[in-house]
Design goal:
mainly alpha; Ribosomal protein L7/L12 C-terminal domain-containing protein
């Protein structure tokens, strides 16, 4: 699954291999942040690649 996430992130964000490894770790831990439309877009792309992904707002407080 990590490789699939990395492939989607590289294609959609245009990141290099070193950068995408870091971002993939954040995505898999649920710590990746961005605007809601950006995160929803990535979640759709990940779901299209077979990864169970959900865009969620962090809890305030």
């Amino acid at each position: 699954m990590r490789v699939t996430v990395m492939r989607v992130l590289r294609a959609e964000l245009g990141l290099g291999l070193t950068e995408v490894k870091s971002v993939a770790g954040q995505v898999l831990e649920g710590a990746y942040s961005g605007t809601l439309p950006e995160v929803e877009y990535l979640a759709r792309k990940l779901r299209g690649a077979g990864v169970d992904a959900v865009a969620a707002r962090p809890d305030a407080g």
